[in-house]
Design goal:
Layout: E1 3-11, E2 18-25, E3 28-32, E4 35-37, H1 44-56, E5 61-73, E6 76-86, E7 98-104, H2 106-111, H3 118-128
Parallel strand pairs: 1-6
Antiparallel strand pairs: 1-4, 2-3, 2-7, 5-6
Length: 134
């Protein structure tokens, strides 16, 4: 089973809510973090910055690595690195695969758990287990 390496940013607003993008494409409708595949020769934090910039149009400043988790989807194993980051201007959707962007409280994310991507569910679980330094 192939392993795909991913990285993304956990961006909190001034109220401590998490920035999520809603992916809406054939066969997939879910809320997820800004992020994506780590390219060859790229460090995870570099991928998190690049992907976030591509998806929300703002270059994030990485504060720290929060950890990683693996999940299975579509006959592959994904390893996703999370980075705490800040942005200095409002984000906006920059890729057509996304149709919404919003900030959610951890409580909101608990209520909408089934609408979250596997990675966002893993992040929420890590938060609930007090495994994130947030």
């Amino acid at each position: 089973m192939p392993k795909i390496m991913l990285a993304g940013c956990v961006i909190l607003n001034e109220e401590g809510k998490v920035l999520l993008l809603h992916r809406k494409e054939a066969g997939k409708s879910q809320w997820e973090l800004p992020g994506g595949k780590i390219e060859e020769g790229e460090e995870p934090w570099q991928a998190a910055v690049r992907e976030s910039l591509e998806e929300v149009g703002v270059e994030p400043a990485i504060a720290m690595e929060l950890g990683f988790r693996e999940f299975r989807e579509s006959a592959a194993i994904y390893k996703y690195y999370w980075f705490s980051a800040t942005i200095d201007k409002p984000p906006s959707i920059k890729e057509s695969k996304f149709d919404k962007l919003a900030y959610f409280s951890w409580h909101d994310m608990t209520i909408m758990r089934e609408e979250l991507s596997p990675n966002a569910r893993n992040l929420l679980q890590a938060y609930e287990d007090n495994k994130l330094p947030l």
